[in-house]
Amino acid sequence: MKKIGVLFGKERSFPMAFVERVNSKNIEGIVAEPVRIDKVMQGEDSGYAVIIDRISQDVPFYRAFLKNAALCGTAVINNPFWWSADEKFFNNCLATKIGVPVPKTVILPSRNHPADTSEQSFANLAYPLAWEEIFNYVGFPAYMKPFAGGGWKNVYRLENADDFYQKHSETGELVMLLQEEIVFDEYYRCYCIGGKHVRIMPYEPRNPHHLRYVSDFSPTPERLQQMEQIVLRINQYLGYDFNTVELALRDGVPYAIDFCNPAPDAEKTSVGEDNFNWVVETAANYAIERALLHKENADNLTWGEYLKRSFMKQPLF
């Protein structure tokens, strides 16, 4: 019996619907359930052929469990080793190399010294930074947000340099990105599952949270194809099995704004019934596919083109 597990936190609608959808298909030798952990011993199999991870970004114990499970052959969605290494600034850097338009972005050292460091820890860091060059490059208005982490936590819109200094002083030990504002005509949030299935959803981030999927954007077939190719290219290079990409269209150009969302929102009350049904069905089919392809005592993880080309000593881009 091949078991498919889903590891989750406070959310309920997607995990329960996913389990129900997989089991409703009555695939011989396949069963889905919420992951149950009563012990984690080094080098011992988790009992799952596939695990969909929805929570380890917030629970280090779960991330360690998933790495051990992957080592023993579980196909973890998403790859916990890559997810541990990845962050938003690297994603933007990669995008510049693979032909995906992104806002001008810089990374900033934390405003306060990290714990257990002092001024002597930063001998290689110029003080002050070249703020005028940074501000001229990014421009104002701009956005400042953490280089790691998701949602809209600690996100600031900045009007000018004085506004930046004031708000940056509030960020403590967070490492922040300063990013060009893209004043968009249309905005889309795009699910990508399995590096091949894409759902492009009109999205209005300026609306209240419960109304963000309510918009009247109507892209042409050509624009839809262009956005789909961008979403696929990003996820195939990063190696994410389950992710969302946010695209802001300015003067007809889709800019990738945020594409490090490996546990994306899939709650029915926020994404809407049609999008919810698509993500449940597509995730269920993909998890079954991975379970059927599962090989005992083998590496069943997805590795992105960036890493695969590095391993094979091929040109990266």
In short:
Helices cover 33% and strands 20% of the residues. It has ten helices and twelve strands.
Helix-strand makeup class:
alpha/beta
Radius of gyration of CA atoms, rounded to a whole number:
21 Å
Distance between the termini: 41 Å
Order of helical and strand elements: EHEEHEHHEHEEHEEEHEEHHH
Largest beta-sheet characterization: 4 strands, parallel
The strand line-up of the biggest sheet is 2-1-3-4
How would the global form be characterised? globular
Q: What is the overall pLDDT average?
A: 95
Examine the secondary-structure arrangement and name the CATH architecture of the domain at 2-85 and 285-306.
Answer: 3-Layer(aba) Sandwich
**Approximate strand percentage:** 15-25%
CATH fold naming of the domain at 2-85 and 285-306: Rossmann fold
CATH class of the domain at 2-85 and 285-306: Alpha Beta
Describe this structure in words.
With 317 residues, this protein is an alpha/beta fold. Among the domains are: 2-85 and 285-306, Rossmann fold (3-Layer(aba) Sandwich); 104-179, ATP-grasp fold, A domain (Dna Ligase, domain 1). It has ten helices and twelve strands. It has helices at 13-24, 60-71, 80-85, 88-97, 131-138, 161-168, 221-238, 268-271, 273-293, 305-311; strands spanning 2-7, 30-34, 50-53, 75-77, 105-108, 142-146, 156-158, 176-180, 186-193, 197-202, 242-250, 253-258. Strands 2-1-3-4 form a four-stranded parallel beta sheet, sandwiched between helices. A four-stranded antiparallel beta sheet has the order 5-8-6-7, sandwiched between helices. α1 (13-24) crosses α9. The longest helix has 21 residues, at 273-293. The chain starts with a strand and ends in a 6-residue tail after the last helix.
